[in-house]
Design brief:
single chain, about 375 residues, mainly alpha, 13 helices, about 85% helix
Length: about 375
């Protein structure tokens, strides 16, 4: 338990700083952007989150599962080489599809969106590589630095240069480039990829573990973000902007879960084959459930005091949706807890099945309420699917 608590402390120190920085951005978003502009930018980010598991093939999750207990440099290199090869080929395939799509539909800010997407796809692999090699502290530092760099870039582009959505994309691109170059040279990644030896058996093992997680990630995206597309189609960018702000406050629980999840995933992988694992897992679950409900109560109790100070009046109705969405994130967090146990056993297919069911619920809500779809319906469909 001590090592687990230590991991939680390490990840929490970094993530709380990330939370603070993200909340500092909320006033800039709501005061300097219109609801439509914020809704448009949110759709770009949401789409990136949709595509990332498809392009990465969730290889980064397999990377952590295989390497966390592996001490042999030769075996580490062999796995990393084949993982990089998979991601490289996948990014090439994505690039071809992206530019064909742009040729047909002519996207605005196309190059900025493309480079943001590609760098965003590579980032999870680098982060998981840090964790796989036991560098949790460096992982936290990297997350903090990326968010800080983005904050500085966003403030300059919004408050000083006034270049709107394009400025946020540029801020993201520059932040990701700096961080990924830093990780590459800090870890001396080139030492792992001097000579790539293609191992088709290993690639098959990686894909058999990671592909069900792609389905799971897409399903999670669907019930987490498809609501935004339904809002967009029925109510427009303005309503999506309001819902996006409500999600930001509600996701306080999700941020807590992300801290817990990182430590829990590592500790569960290490302890899975130990004799006392069931006792340890139950003890962790009891504490986790108590903490989640405590945070939920605090959010609901104090939202009317702190939310008005952080947002512009035109977004004031977000307080109507925060309690519903916060409860949704609580159930999502519990699902993540049990999902890690399936990952430990390398049985990833059941995870995708439950996520697909949640996605179907969202779709049914959209079909049933297609003529009266509003933000309350969106919030309750999010809750039902979670």
């Amino acid at each position: 338990m001590n090592s687990f608590i230590k991991k939680i402390i390490i990840y929490s120190l970094g993530n709380f700083s990330v939370i603070l920085i993200n909340f500092l951005l909320v006033p800039f978003y709501t005061f300097d952007f219109s609801q439509a502009e914020l809704g448009y930018y949110d759709i770009i980010v949401t789409t990136a989150n949709l595509i990332v598991p498809i392009v990465t093939l969730q290889v980064e999750v397999a990377l952590l599962r295989w390497l966390i207990n592996e001490k042999s440099i030769e075996k580490q290199s062999h796995f990393i080489q084949n993982s990089i090869l998979l991601i490289f080929l996948s990014v090439l395939f994505f690039s071809a599809i992206f530019f064909i799509y742009n040729y047909i539909y002519s996207l605005n800010n196309v190059l900025f969106i493309y480079f943001y997407f590609v760098l965003f796809f590579i980032y999870p692999f680098f982060k998981q590589l840090l964790r796989s090699l036991g560098l949790a502290k460096l992982y936290v530092i990297v997350e903090f630095l990326y968010t800080l760099l983005f904050l500085i870039g966003a403030i300059i582009s919004i408050a000083m240069l006034n270049i709107g959505v394009k400025g946020l994309l540029i801020s993201n691109i520059l932040s990701l480039i700096i961080i990924e170059i830093f990780i590459f040279f800090k870890l001396k990644v080139f030492r792992f990829i001097k000579f790539i030896k293609v191992d088709y058996t290993l690639i098959k093992q990686i894909l058999s573990y990671s592909l069900p997680l792609v389905v799971n990630a897409l399903s999670i995206w669907f019930f987490s973000y498809s609501v935004k597309y339904l809002i967009l189609m029925v109510n427009g960018y303005d309503a999506n902007g309001i819902f996006a702000v409500a999600l930001k406050f509600s996701s306080i629980i999700q941020v807590f879960n992300s801290i817990f999840y990182l430590a829990w995933q590592e500790e569960a992988f290490i302890r899975y084959n130990q004799s006392d694992r069931n006792v340890f897992f139950k003890r962790v679950l009891d504490i986790y459930v108590f903490a989640l409900f405590l945070i939920l109560i605090l959010i609901i109790s104090f939202q009317h005091f702190f939310v008005p100070f952080l947002i512009d009046n035109k977004f004031s109705e977000v307080v109507n949706y925060i309690p519903i969405l916060s409860l949704s994130y609580l159930f999502i967090s519990l699902a993540y807890f049990f999902g890690v146990i399936f990952q430990c056993a390398k049985k990833t297919k059941p995870i995708s099945h439950s996520s697909l069911l949640a996605s179907m619920i969202i779709l049914l809500f959209g079909l049933f309420y297609k003529d009266s779809y509003n933000l309350y319906v969106a919030a309750y469909s999010f809750l039902s699917s979670s």
